[in-house]
Amino acid sequence: MRIIARLCLGSLLLCAVLWLCWIKVNTKEKADEQPRTLPQILTLPGYSRLPDGQPLSRNPCKSCAVVSSSGQMLGSGLGPQIDQAECVLRMNTAPTLGYEADVGSRSSLRVVSHTSVPLLLRNQTYFFQQSQDTVYVIWGPLRQMDIDSGITYRVLQHTKGMYPQVQIYTLTQSMMAHCDLVFQNETGKNRAMSGTFLSTGWFTMILAMELCEEITVYGMVGENYCRNRFNPPVPYHYYEKGRLDECTMYMMHERASRGAHRFITEKAVFARWAHRKQIHFAHPSWGA
Ligand SMILES: *[C@@H]1O[C@H](CO)[C@@H](O)[C@H](O)[C@H]1NC(C)=O
Ligand SMILES: *[C@@H]1O[C@H](CO)[C@@H](O)[C@H](O)[C@H]1NC(C)=O
After folding, report:
1. How far is the CA of 32 from the centre of ligand 1 (A)?
2. Hey, whose CA ends up nearest to atom 13 of ligand 1?
3. pLDDT above 90 covers what percent of the chain?
4. I want to staple 73 with a disulfide (CB 3.0 to 4.6 A). Which of 33, 40, 134, 238 is the partner?
5. Ligand 1: does its nearest atom lie under 6 Å from the Cβ of 38?
6. For 22-79, how does the pLDDT look when each residue is reduced to its tens digit (9 = 90+)?
7. What integer is the mean pLDDT of 245-267?
8. Largest CA distance in the chain
9. Ligand of minimum distance to the alpha carbon of 277
10. Lowest-confidence range among 12-21, 44-53, 244-253?
11. Using a CB cutoff of 8 Å and minimum separation of 24, what contacts does 268-277 make?
12. Is the CB of residue 118 less than 8 Å from the CB of residue 158?
């Protein structure tokens, strides 16, 4: 202040400029002092932590990238964009190593089917040691996931014992029932009676809707995509080349009377959710 005052004697203009700067810095400091609203903590009781059963509790993700395992991702070059999202959600054991350019390299959460747990175990070094920042969210039916007698639950408990730093959650059975109800509500069909198995994508989208403020879904085709026979075939999974083409797989499942996934129906539902919530579909990009 004393320096400013002395300069003021010399030059009125300089004085005015310095004075303004001083006021500006001061107001900025004041603004910084104001208490910020604390980030709101989300508590999601549908997801239960191993081994203590605590609900999933964390800050909401401002932006989420939901990366599908679809062959659509091959050659997308979207890896860097995906990695910019605050939270990156992947499904099952979809690898990033060797595919970084197309699918990114970060994995904040993995939603894993009970049927894929043995595949996680096959590569424990990678999933439970090298990727220990990843939160694993496992879904499955009661007979697999029961806390007392479920085989998958027991395997996960053992895994948690061996790698205490790994964060594992399971969907509670009431959350599983809720996911069935969401299907019934959206399609008018009972999930079990219509011979339907929900896909890992279904559980991932429901989690993302709870966790994320804004969602970009990568590599998920729209409901009508497979009707266009001129679309080039892509592998069902980007990491399993030479297997069945994605649309062939989707159509086969959609038509099967029982024991099938309804990938196309699910996508029609996701499109409707995009009216309610900020969901964007990228690569192929399509609107709700
Ligand atoms: C484990 O995963 C890593 C990364 O995807 C891969 O490079 C490695 O070959 C896998 N190891 C086994 C035994 O599957
Ligand atoms: C059922 O569907 C309606 C309309 O789409 C929606 O507003 C409501 O939240 C849904 N309820 C459940 C439990 O999914």
Report:
1. 47
2. 123
3. 81
4. 238
5. no
6. 555 454 444 444 555 556 899 999 999 999 999 999 999 999 999 999 999 999 999 9
7. 94
8. 91
9. 2
10. 12-21
11. 268/223, 269/183, 269/186, 269/187, 270/205, 270/217, 270/220, 271/222, 271/223, 272/186, 273/205, 273/209, 277/209, 277/215
12. no
Cα 216–219–225 angle (5° rounding)? Answer: 115
- Taking phi first (over 0 means left), then psi (-120 to 50 degrees means alpha), and beta for anything else, what does residue 53 get? left
* CA 273 / ligand 2 centre spacing (Å): 10
Pocket of ligand 2 (CB under 6 A): 181-182, 185
Task: Kindly report the CATH class assigned to 42-282.
Answer: alpha beta
| Rounded distance from Cα 122 to ligand 1 centre (Å) | 9
Tokens of 207: 């989690």
Question: Best mutation site among 69, 96, 97 for ligand 1, i.e. most ligand atoms within 8 A of its Cβ?
Answer: 97
Ligand number with the minimum distance to the CA of 269? 2
Q: Which atom of ligand 1 is nearest to the CA of 95?
A: 5
**pLDDT number for residue 285:** 87
Pocket test for ligand 1, best of 123, 128, 129, 134 (most atoms within 8 A of CB): 123
Q: In what order do the strands lie in the sheet with 109-113?
A: 55-58, 42-49, 167-171, 135-139, 109-113, 87-91, 61-67, 212-218, 279-282
Is 124 touching ligand 1 by the criterion CB < 6 Å?
Answer: no
Residue owning the nearest CA to atom 5 of ligand 2: 186
pLDDT (0 to 100) of residue 6: 56
Residue with tokens 């497979």: 226
Query: What tens digit of pLDDT does each residue of 69-125 get?
Result: 999 999 999 999 999 999 999 999 999 999 999 999 999 999 999 999 999 999 999
Residue 103 has, within 13 A of its CA and on its CB side, a CA count of: 24
Helices then strands, counting H and E runs in the chain, come out as: 12, 11
Q: What is the pLDDT of residue 139?
A: 98
